[in-house]
Amino acid sequence: MPHEPHSLDAAAVRTWSSLTLAALGRAREDIDAINVYPVADADTGTNLYLTACSAARALEAAFDAPAGVSEGTARGAAATSLGEAVRAYAHGALTGARGNSGTIFAQLLRGVADVLGGEPRATASGGLLAGALARAAESAYQAVAHPVEGTMLTVAAAAATAAGAAEAAAGSAADVARAAYEGARAALAETPGQLAALGRAGVVDAGGCGIVAVLGALWQALSGQEVPLEPVRGRAVAVPAQPQPCDEEPDGPAYEVTYLLDAPDPAVDLLRGTLDALGDSLVVVGGDGLWNVHVHVDDPGAAVEAGVVAGRPYRIRITHFGDERRRADAERAQRAVVAVVQGEGLAGLCQEAGATTVLALPGEPPVAAEIAAAVRRAHAREVVLLPGGAEQRAAAAAAAEQARADGVRVAVIPTRSAVQGLAALAVHDPDASFDEDVVAMTAAAGATRHGELAIAERQSFTSAGICQAGDVLGLIDGDVAVIGSELAETAEAVLERMLGSGGELVTLVLGPEVPDALAARLEAYVQHGHLAVDTLTYRGGRYSAPLLIGIE
């Protein structure tokens, strides 16, 4: 995106975002490999990349459909202000932050937005950028319950100090960004001497590497110059690509708990005290009623309950570190299944069947790096990948290519719905040859017709006619076939059409708000009109569609 080489404007923020994604994408595996603090779970690079992906999606949405512009009309860089761009970028990072490093990264961006988000002018000076970086470092320290030096906090603070010196010398925004980048690089090289875990392993701080990449991308966006974006390795030039083993056994809490939280500021202050008493690595970021909470605990239920007391927690993620460590140490399995699903209940079903799952949130399909991370977690020589819906297929294909580059044999089953994934998983046979298993799973998915009920959000033209906001849409194989006013009647109409071409088994997956009475009614409807057809009913759980239908 063209812009003045030294201007800090909305277009520069957009360029910074794309360069950050590229830099973190290149550095992701190297950063994962040197991740030893606070937990050696080899995911810092991936978490930073996924957080940057969420930030980038929100930023692009601000350019494509900003407030006051009708849907489908792109306003572009000329009309999107610097403040709007920075606020959107920070908000996307907040809502999509992953892990300890991603959560701190989100707060750093929020600090930048605190200063630049209210800027009325189209461009910001070097002085404003220096102030934004100082505010970023300050707010990140405040968000961490017990800040530790030798981490990404130290690197961010050094960057801010160097940026301030450049601003004092009347430097441009590009000069300030370059100083911040070089200050961060210098601070990163010193982290092994500041944090014992890094010194023992012979590595620099993984999160700090990510900050160096982000600041390098900022300098490149403002200067137009190519920047050496590879993370600094070690005190001078190099450290081992893999950390040296420590003599100590891993200790600390067993679980990582993260969630978004709607809550007022006073309640969050109390929450911080409660969670701090429960565990460590506590980071609470955000503000204005929306927060992202990250903590390591032994009692994940208590951590979630504390969120319930404070407000409304959602997008709850609980990771057991013991599982991650055992998986890293274990011998590779011969074959595994990785399934992308929308709905926590569906994810549980797939996990019970032995699959590794990736939860797709409404409107936020997982990116390739997230699916590739799940393939790595599966820790198998062969992986069958179920992408869920058609919108996930491109990301699944890209993840498969990444895994193949790592020596994993991967096949992507072309599923278009979660019910097709369930059908494929039902016939999965790990004892069959890989090709036989893939053929059988593909055939089972292809033999399953899929339907879905959705609620129309606005008036629209469909293949079944014009729908109004609030109408119930009955989709068959991806196309709107029925428009109704009630869930039950629309579901029956969809079932009748789908069973008109035959079927032996009906699978119903109910959304979280759908009453059990609807399942009983639909089961009776099938039994009454199609005596030879069996029915299976599952709960899709939170984030799932109102109703999914599969007919085999």
What does the model show?
The chain is an alpha/beta fold and 552 residues long. 49% of the residues lie in helices and 18% in strands. It contains 19 helices and 16 strands. It has helices at 10-33, 44-64, 82-96, 99-116, 126-143, 152-168, 173-190, 196-201, 206-223, 265-278, 300-310, 321-329, 344-352, 368-378, 393-405, 418-426, 434-446, 487-499, 516-529; strands at 255-262, 279-287, 290-297, 312-320, 333-341, 356-359, 380-386, 409-412, 449-455, 460-462, 465-467, 472-476, 479-484, 505-510, 534-539, 547-551. The strands form 4 sheets. It has a 6-stranded mixed β-sheet with strand order 13-12-9-16-14-15, sandwiched between helices. It has a 4-stranded antiparallel β-sheet with strand order 2-3-1-4, sandwiched between helices. Mean pLDDT is 85; it is low at 66-75 and 231-250.
Radius of gyration: 25 Å
Q: How would you write the strand order of the largest sheet?
A: 13-12-9-16-14-15
Helix-strand makeup class: alpha/beta
How much strand content do the residues show? 15-25%
The strand count comes to 16
Total helical segments: 19
Indicate the overall shape.
Answer: globular
Tags for this entry?
552 residues, alpha/beta, four-stranded antiparallel beta sheet, 49% helix
